[in-house]
Amino acid sequence: MGQVLLLLGWLYFSIHVSVQAEQMSSRNDLHPECLGNVVRLRVGPLLEEVDIIVNDTEIVQLSPRLAAQCGFRFKFDNTGNAILFASLLNCFSHSMDDETFNLFGQLRVSGDHFTAGYTCSYTWASREILCDHTYMEVSVRKTLPDIPFISKQRVGGRKGRNSDPRRRSKAVAPGYRMTKVVFMPSNKIMKTEEVQRRGYAIANTPTRLVLRSPHEEEETYLQTVAGIPMRLLSTSTFFEQKWLVTRIDTVAACPTQGSVAFTSDLITWYMPRQIDPLLSSDSFTMLEVYMGVDGKRLDDKEMAARNYSVSVTEVHIIVKIPVGAIGGYYKSHIQDYQYFSAYTIEPMLEMLWIEEDAHEDTRYKVLFPITTPLVARPPQVHNYTPLEGTPEQQVFMLKLGTFNLDVVLLNITFSTGLLTIAECNARGFNVQEEISEDDSSKTFSVEVPFLDPVVLQEKSLEQGVTSFTLHLIYGMAVLPEYNTFSHPAVVNSVLMNIVPPSITGICDQDNFYIIVNYENQAPLFEIIIGGWLLTSDLAEQYVTEGESRITLTVPFSARETVFESIQPSSVRSRLDVSLLNPFTNSTMKDFSLGCSFPKTLIECLSNGTMTALALKVASAPGLNPRQLTLADRTCGPIYSDDRFAYFQFTINSCGTTNKFIDNGILYENEISLPDELKLKTALGVDEEYHLMVSCYYLANITQNLAFNNRPSNTEPSAEMRSDILVIMKIATDSSYRTFHEVEDYPVVRYMRRPLHIEVEITGSTDPEVKLILDHCWATNDKDRTSKPRWNLIINGCENPEEPYRVMFHQVFADSRVNFPAHMKRFEVQMFSFAKEVDILRDQLTKIFIHCDVFICDSNSPAGGFCREQCVNKENNSKRGQRHVEDTSVPRFHVSSGLILGYVKIWKSKSFVKK
Ligand SMILES: *[C@@H]1O[C@H](CO)[C@@H](O)[C@H](O)[C@H]1NC(C)=O
Ligand SMILES: *[C@@H]1O[C@H](CO)[C@@H](O)[C@H](O)[C@H]1NC(C)=O
Ligand SMILES: *[C@@H]1O[C@H](CO)[C@@H](O)[C@H](O)[C@H]1NC(C)=O
Ligand SMILES: *[C@@H]1O[C@H](CO)[C@@H](O)[C@H](O)[C@H]1NC(C)=O
Ligand SMILES: *[C@@H]1O[C@H](CO)[C@@H](O)[C@H](O)[C@H]1NC(C)=O
Ligand SMILES: *[C@@H]1O[C@H](CO)[C@@H](O)[C@H](O)[C@H]1NC(C)=O
Ligand SMILES: *[C@@H]1O[C@H](CO)[C@@H](O)[C@H](O)[C@H]1NC(C)=O
Question: Which ranges does the record mark as transmembrane (predicted)?
């Protein structure tokens, strides 16, 4: 099987269709697309030159020059991806019949091998002209004469010359040899070998003659067609047989960049409608006009979607493409350190016309990359830093743009030095690449906190502001060439100076009030109260917010407080507050407020119950209040927690002691830890906790008092009696039927008249209870201990001495008196108390009567004195014994109101009224 593609001297290799190659075709790595007389292969990323391996052994470096000569072209998009365009008639293509073409070989890129194979079928027009970016190619159907005479056959020859239609249909006559080529208009004659050597390509396939020339080869020339500058290649190729010589003329004409006009948003490409150098007559019919991109035709719908348009006028075919339209791309360029952008698109125009008198059709195809002029696009820094909040919260937010997709951000240089993007992000600058919605451009965003050391701060005290300045230089590169460039920027923000928050506080009798003022700053701190973070839950409980102030209202006994000391009538409590910077965990402010709150932690209830609240104090940090007890270790708190222990007990239980003081009884107990639980401090010293609990019960006519006369050792506590009251009344006369009421006081009495006194227990229905008057006396002053003092009853018996003679009156039951034993009556002379001087001067004498009384239960085994008021008034020796203190018997004090004694009838009305 002979070689079909005629390879001439310059080509040192050829293609064999081998079995191996067939197998390769099954794995078409490069996705070939047959686009008429052109094949398109997507090669992928490609940064270096490519080798083609043909015949599995021959390695051919596809230099740009060889590629143009052989009908290959690489096109790179902006990301460095390559597309290979190959003419179906390229040097390495293989065809048996000029209808089906294939190529099997490999591409070698950076040591990687790609299988490069395609099979494409194509039906040729009589003449095909292909204008590629790097070459022009013309192929014509060969119809060499088989009759022995010298003739000329012109295909695409000059106008006005006729060709013989009969010959066109005939097959190529065998035996012809291509001998020489004459280039027009220079008339330079070259042998075919020389043609190849000079960089042109010429091929003689079974049916066609192919001529190809890189643009701007020596023998090409410029010509203006319909105002459009075009480059032409015009040749006559001579074929010789033994006796015959024949010639085929070919002309190719391709547009140059001069055919394009630009505005800022539109590309307009003009092509002559009638390409005169290619026509042999005036009458031709345009059969088809197609537009496409990257070698591929587009239908009307696609054209409209992309806003492309093709219009045909009398003279021109006009292609319009909006700058930025789909199908093209923007590419970045750096010139003089400036950023430029250009838009590139490769439209294709395809025409088919027929010359009527020649009956020959011509397919004309142009692949025409267009790049707009460079447009300067200086990057802009958009500062969208929000200006609110504190410097801690503030972040410079910058966007740099707009760039084409082929730009990458490499690094940013700050005042402190260069940081790569990875370093920026590690530092929290959040550098992001943002692609526009239509995928056509990108911006770079960066966020720099105001307090980062790369930001310069300048505080102006007199203006009360701080200015934050960020200097930065963006370092970027354009890919894939890696052309670097940079863009400097300075951004500035001015913030009000930070006024540090302040804390003040006051107390009332129940609460702490802590006021945190934060002036012009949002509250950028956390509040810690008593070691607890002020969470939203706590805040709900305590916080009232005002304008730039927070008020905390914290009860004196809240969990967050500390008790410093406990006094009988007050508790000293302390609240510690601190403000924390949440960014650094450092304390911004510490504040402590200690106040004494007037609180009585001990209650003395009238029914003889005492309550005490023991608090854990700061000086006993290890104390567990649950372990506290009263003097009797079996008496623990009825309620307790980490900070409190609440005790409730009766005065005759839990080891409570009592003693008489003045006219009252003092009950005492102590709250402490059992010895075995005494706290040891780190120093080994006992930490003592003692809380004295005492109740002083006054015995007077208005004081309610509960009592229990059973011995205290009969615990647990005996039942208590209901309220008992001891009262003293003055009777109007000796009948003891009417009495002076409370509102009658002061009672006024003539000095020589007797005073009738009654002392009574009320509130008891126990007939066994007996009232005993132990001591009774008179004073001039309300104070029962004042001097002078006139003793009336001593140790239960009447004072035997004159003039204080007291007379007891026996009490009998009657309508008023239910229990005679509950009552004592006695009579005393008023003059007893007056000094002679006072009487002479008509002075008033103030008198108060006081008694100390016992209340005895006749059933109780108490001392004998309880049985009678005065056991034996004559037996003085017995009286002495009665002084034995028996503290188990309740003793009460009772006093009269003011009694005024006078000698004469009173003169002053006003006084009487009073
Ligand atoms: C193709 O390869 C075969 C076998 O390696 C070799 O014999 C032949 O010469 C090669 N053809 C060319 C044109 O180099
Ligand atoms: C086409 O042009 C119209 C009108 O100028 C415009 O609205 C539309 O966005 C364009 N379409 C494309 C894909 O550019
Ligand atoms: C930083 O970016 C610039 C481009 O402006 C580049 O020239 C330089 O090599 C880059 N430096 C580093 C360390 O990446
Ligand atoms: C601050 O302290 C808290 C609790 O100790 C901790 O969880 C947090 O991570 C700390 N924050 C900083 C910035 O150190
Ligand atoms: C005494 O009064 C208090 C308060 O009213 C009550 O809680 C307590 O039980 C009473 N004690 C006795 C022994 O009645
Ligand atoms: C009796 O006791 C009450 C309450 O303690 C007190 O207010 C009052 O002054 C006392 N009366 C006399 C006469 O002492
Ligand atoms: C006085 O007391 C003594 C001693 O208790 C007693 O012996 C004597 O009888 C008493 N005198 C009278 C009159 O009761």
Answer: none
